[in-house]
Every structure is written in structure tokens, then in C-alpha cells.
Amino acid sequence: MCKRPSVRFFSRARQPLGHLALAPARSHVTPVFLSALAIACGSSPAVQHGFGSTPLVTVTSASGTLQVAVYTNPQPPTVGDVAVRYFISETASSQPVDGLSLAVVPWMPAMGHGTSVVPSVSAAGGGVYDLSNVYLFMAGQWQLRTAISGGATDSVTPDLMVE
Questions:
Q1: Among 142, 138, 134, 144, residue whose Cα is nearest residue 161
Q2: Which among 55, 65, 93, 157 has most CB atoms closer than 10 A?
Q3: 35 and 100 share a domain?
Q4: Beta bridge partners of 112
Q5: Measuring CA to CA, which residue among 126, 116, 46, 130 is closest to residue 83?
Q6: Taking CA 49 as the corner, what is the angle to CA 46 and CA 52, rounded to the nearest 5 degrees?
Q7: 69 lies in a domain?
Q8: Range of the domain at 38
Q9: What would the mean pLDDT of 30-47 be, rounded to a whole number?
Q10: Where is pLDDT greater, at 49 or 135?
Q11: By three-state DSSP, how is residue 96 classified?
């Protein structure tokens, strides 16, 4: 006949805790885990929904004649569909530029590819151009390769960091 060893649990004072010794230890795991999860989730920057009053980035066109302020919704951009707003003005005078046609290609330079979804562009007036269907399906750096035609022929490539 084989004798089973007995297992006993002791407190730090070396006093027996009995058969319920594991229950208190297990109950502390959940609060500790939830606290760590809350800290980890709370450490990311706040995402602003709607177009804010401050551009995410402002870039100058290839020719240097146009200035493009880029706003995103959400800002900063996150993985998925992102709305983008361009405010295009003359670099020298800061006057808004209307009457332009934009062709935008979202491009991920690190991966060497774009998306299969073609963004739509609509002119809102006052130098504002709204882009919809901007599908950024991976986190990382994206470029919005933009060809400008109409009243000016130019190009601009704003960089976006997608979270």
C-alpha cells in the first residue's frame, strides 16, 4: 500500500491555513489582471472623432506653390476606413484654392503596396476637399499619394501614422 504524501499550506507566520488556502490567492489574480489591463489600455493617446481644428500634418506640394493641411477622422487615424480632409491654399498668399481635381492613392511604403479601394474626393468649397473610402487596413506608415490637376498641376504626398 502506497502512502500519499500530505500537503499543507502555511501562512508567512508558518501557521496552517487549511484546505481553503488557495481561494484567497485566486481572488487576487482578477483585480491585479484588470488593473494591469486598464493601465495598458489607458496608455495609448486619445483618439479624437470628427475633424479637429488642428491639422494632423501640413505639407507643401512638389512645386512649392500649394500648401495642404491634412485632417483625419478619427485623428490620429486608426486601422480601417478613415475620412480625410484636405485644406489646400496657395503657399505665398495662404488663399484657399478651389477648382482642383485630386486623384489619391493610399500607399504603404514599408510593404510596397496600396489598397484595392479607391478613395472618393468631393470639393466642399473654400479650399476644402473631403476624401472618403480611405481604407487603411494595417497599422504603420501610410502615404496619401495625391495628383493635383485643374487650376494647378502638382502633387503632394502626406504621411500618416496609423495606429
A1: 142
A2: 55
A3: no
A4: none
A5: 130
A6: 95
A7: yes
A8: 8-43
A9: 47
A10: 135
A11: strand
Is residue 30 domain-resident? Answer: yes
How does pLDDT run across 86-123, given as a tens digit for each residue? 999 999 999 999 999 999 999 999 999 999 999 999 99
Min mean pLDDT across 25-34, 60-69, 101-110 is at 25-34
Domain match, 24 and 77 both: no
Q: d(Cα 102, Cα 138) in Å, to the nearest integer?
A: 24
The reply to whether 22 and 66 lie within a common domain is no
Q: For residues 35 and 67, give the distance between their C-alpha atoms in angstroms, rounded to a whole number.
A: 45
The three-class DSSP label of residue 39 is: helix
Q: Are residues 65 and 125 in the same domain?
A: yes
CATH number of the domain bearing residue 147: 2.60.40.1930
pLDDT of residue 68: 98
Please state the domain count of the chain: 2
Q: Average the pLDDT over 3-20 and give the result.
A: 53
What is the torsion angle, in degrees rounded to the nearest 10, for the CA atoms of residue 12, residue 16, residue 17 and residue 18?
A: 160
CA 6 to chain centre: 56
